[in-house]
Amino acid sequence: MADLDYLVIAAHPDDAELCLGGTILLLKAQGHQVGVLDLTDGEPTPHGSKEIRQRETAAATQLLGLDWRGNLGLPNRLLQSTLQARGLLAGVFRDLRPRVLFAPYWDDAHPDHVAASALVDAARFWAKLTKTELPGQPHYPSRILYYFSMHLRLHVKPSLVMDVTPHHDAKMRAVECYHSQFVQGRPTTAPTFLDDVRDRARYWGWTIGTGYGEPLLCREEIGLRGLRDLT
Fold it and tell me: What is the pLDDT of residue 230?
């Protein structure tokens, strides 16, 4: 396939939809090539199974209109930034050649998310190496943008907030595809889990004067060629 503009790396199926669904839809509406790589199958969970999660992921993928989605097949709950995992992920980067990566923020209660963040950092560097047994040609994504998960109630100051207002309803439909994770077995009295997802997006939208937003952080400086899109 053609080189991707953006690749989201997620520890589990549903992380990309939950944390970046609006941004993915915005990028697709702007004509960009966007992919998602889930590192694990996310199972076992209390109300899910591998087959259920695969069906939910397929439904969400269709709603997002992704150009590519894959799964690295690493073990859920045991995810680690090992040398083997680093090589596998670097190989994907060299194959898809994304310009920008999205990765989980490095501080989180879920060990898989912490490991995924470190793994993306390391694999980004490995992907550019020469004289290596890695497949494909060297490639170095220009930026990593970190998205925020839901397991710690942190209030980290982001580098930027994406205005996802026109795409928020579609994002919520993609999140709701994961019925086994976000609906089944959860409290039905307000505020529900989905209410919390919506309210957080509304808060970040409020911070930039729009309806809904998704925060992102970058360790490196971000250059702009203009100020037209500042809210």
Answer: 87
Structural tokens at position 74 = 């690493």
Of 100, 93, 95, 80, the C-alpha closest to 126 is 93
* Cα angle, residue 226 at apex, residues 221 and 230 outer, rounded to 5°: 85
- What are the φ and ψ backbone dihedral angles of 161, each rounded to 5 degrees? -125, 125
Q: Which DSSP state fits 229?
A: T
Domain boundaries, the chain: 6-217
Say if residue 2's pLDDT is above 90.
no
Q: What angle, 0 to 180 degrees and rounded to 10, lies between the N-to-C axes of helices 50-64 and 15-29?
A: 20
What's the pLDDT at 231? 83
Amino acid letter, residue 26: L
Residue 151 has a pLDDT of 85
d(CA 161, CA 205) in angstroms, rounded, equals: 8
* Distance from C-alpha of 37 to C-alpha of 212, rounded to nearest angstrom: 25
Contact 174, 64 (CB under 8 A): yes
Asked whether the predicted pLDDT for residue 82 surpasses 70, the reply is: yes
In the CATH hierarchy, which fold is given to the domain comprising 6-217? Answer: Rossmann fold (3.40.50)
